[in-house]
Amino acid sequence: MSTRTPIAFLKGHGTENDFVIVPDPDNVIDLSPAAVAALCDRRAGIGGDGLLHVVRSAAHPEAKDMAAEAEWFMDYRNGDGSIAEMCGNGVRVFARYLQHAGHTAEGDLAIATRGGVKTVHIAKDGDVTVGMGKARLPEGDVKVSVGERSWPARNVNMGNPHAVAFVDDLAHAGDLYSPPPFSPASAYPDGVNVEFVVDRGPRHVALRVHERGSGETRSCGTGACAVAVATARRDGTDPAVTGAPVTYTVDVPGGTLVITERPDGEIEMTGPAVIVAEGELEADWLETVVR
Ligand SMILES: N[C@@H](CCC[C@H](N)C(=O)O)C(=O)O
């Protein structure tokens, strides 16, 4: 019989971008990249596009400095165990978890992330909105390709890197089993999330995404924001130029996100965030699979 303390987990999603959630307020669980990949494995583990390690900011070396502003730190990991700077759906599901666990109520709260402190609003109607901060648009032409086709892409940084390509048909993105090649290689030394976008109507687009460290996912929050920013520049609705906020509806394979950019560049994203299950890992399982 094991004498180990069982590890609690939850499973949640935001527009079907799904996460294993590991509450660990004092930061005592050893979540190596191999352990994260094992937990996110859809056949041999719990399964998820990524993992949300829920830690008190004061207990995490990367978040200590944010502890005065935000009690909780989202230590986000991609499904392959790699670390990313930011996860837009993740932070909304993280907020939902804090509400579910009784750490917060409806209304506003601040969450520390590697991309800085984000303000989240949990609405009565159930949707969760996050203030994503401002996009950066690094200069330079980027190209992404799938098979014989290639497209110019807009380089948008939402804390993490994105390449946004407007295509005629989302099927042209192919099976997305592997990361779409991009050039020049120097554009994304740490890899990139690639969004393929089509128009659906006025201020309404749809995307497919290949995420760095996770593969094709059914939604990407930072990706949806990058798409809204790139589309506004394409459409001539850039709020910094027009002086008026602009809102885009972004359909993702797993649902819909609504993104508003204001003239000062601040971006807000709204959508659903759901907790679907909670449980305990089988004693010793993690230890066995990552040994
Ligand atoms: N799904 C996320 C983005 C997660 C990080 C990304 N894969 C990266 O490596 O940058 C979102 O909702 O933003």
TrEMBL record:
Location(s), subcellular: Cytoplasm
Main function: Catalyzes the stereoinversion of LL-2,6-diaminopimelate (L,L-DAP) to meso-diaminopimelate (meso-DAP), a precursor of L-lysine and an essential component of the bacterial peptidoglycan.
Keywords: Amino-acid biosynthesis, Cytoplasm, Isomerase, Lysine biosynthesis
Signal peptide (from-to): none
GO biological-process terms attached to the record: lysine biosynthetic process via diaminopimelate
Pfam hit, one: DAP_epimerase
Organism: Streptomyces chartreusis
Protein name (database record): Diaminopimelate epimerase
